[in-house]
Amino acid sequence: MLLRAKKQWLYAIPVCTAVLFAVGCQEKPASPTEAQSASQAQAIQIPLIQAKMTRVELSKKQSCDEDGCTQYDLQTVQSNVPWIDEYFLDRIKKDVPVAFEKDAHTTQAASEAADLKGLSQQSIYVRFISQQYNLATFMMQSYSYAAGAAHGMYHNEYVTFDLTTQKRLALTDILKPNVEAKVAEQLYDANANWLTQHDITREKLQLSDNYYYGPKGIVFVYPLYELASYAEGMTELTLPYLVAKDLVKAEYLPSLPVVEAVAEKAPQAE
After folding, report:
1. Which residue in 220, 221, 260, 261 sits closest to 244, CA to CA?
2. DSSP assigned state of 151
3. Which of the chain's termini has less CB crowding within 10 Å, N or C?
4. Per-residue DSSP letter, 107
């Protein structure tokens, strides 16, 4: 019986070989899920941001009206990602539309008002800050000075893009659902010393939608005068990443180091 079985197995070899040569070597077709994943991987290419500052070309460097004249200094980024460049140029045009008006005519009344009140200033600078794989962060720094004022006012707005979706990420985009109150609580705990020194109670602290990814955590940035004096500048409060990992969506957190617990060895008796 054993010999007969061996012979049958040997006879089957030529038949299988013939079928193999007839059909040919064909790869197993990919499943729809595998094909879709491969297609998405090819479509999504995360660029390595390369950006430099460049001055915005204006038809006039200053505009005048009956309230005086304002001088403009506008600089944006020129990068290897066109849609990012377009985003910031559009933002600047919306923030300072007068600077892009082609009519440079100045009335006599406007000139006289400018001579009396002096020259106001307004500037916007866009800078590339950092990139963490698909997350790219930029800063829009604006400054305005009204002629005759004691000092100018400035504001730093941080803009983070998801390069895979080509969209700006608002704070609500990166947080898990319904965790805002918990984030505010943890943010207060992490900065309790500074907040207490400035007489800011837990109830008074609100989340800022102006944030960026810092080296130690997510940094919430507050406007001038909101939490501190002008001399102290814009306030920055950090939510440590180890705390944020339970409150922020995993895809919007940087890679955190994995710390393995090391078991202590029992002392050996001599």
Report:
1. 220
2. S
3. C
4. -
- 161 burial level (CB within 10 Å; 0-12, 13-18, 19+): buried
Question: What gap in Å lies between CA 194 and CA 220, rounded to an integer?
Answer: 14
Of 179, 187, 79, 176, nearest to 137 (Cα)?
A: 79
What stretch of H or E contains 243? Answer: helix 241-244
Written as six digits, the tokens of 167 are: 């969209």
| Residue 95 falls in which region: left (phi positive, over 0), alpha (psi -120 to 50) or beta | alpha
Contact (CB, 8 A) for 71 and 122: yes
Structure tokens at 44: 């999504």
Extract the tokens encoding 133: 């794989």
42 DSSP β-pair partners: none
pLDDT tens digits, the chain, 270 residues: what are they?
433 444 443 344 444 444 334 444 444 555 554 444 444 444 568 999 999 999 999 877 888 877 789 999 999 999 999 999 999 999 999 999 988 887 655 555 555 555 666 889 999 999 999 999 999 999 999 999 988 888 899 999 999 999 999 999 999 999 999 999 999 999 999 999 999 999 999 999 999 999 999 999 999 999 999 999 999 999 999 999 999 999 999 999 987 655 554 555 555 555
Q: How far apart are CA 198 and CA 13, in angstroms?
A: 86
Tokens coding 208: 């800022």
Q: What is the DSSP letter of 216?
A: S
Distances, alpha carbon 161 to alpha carbons 56, 166, 170, 172, in Å: 22, 7, 9, 14
- Give pTM, 2 decimals: 0.75
Residue with tokens 């500037």: 123
Strands 68-79 and 119-132: parallel
**String of DSSP letters for 216-243:** SEEEEEE-TTTSS-GGG-SEEEEEEHHH
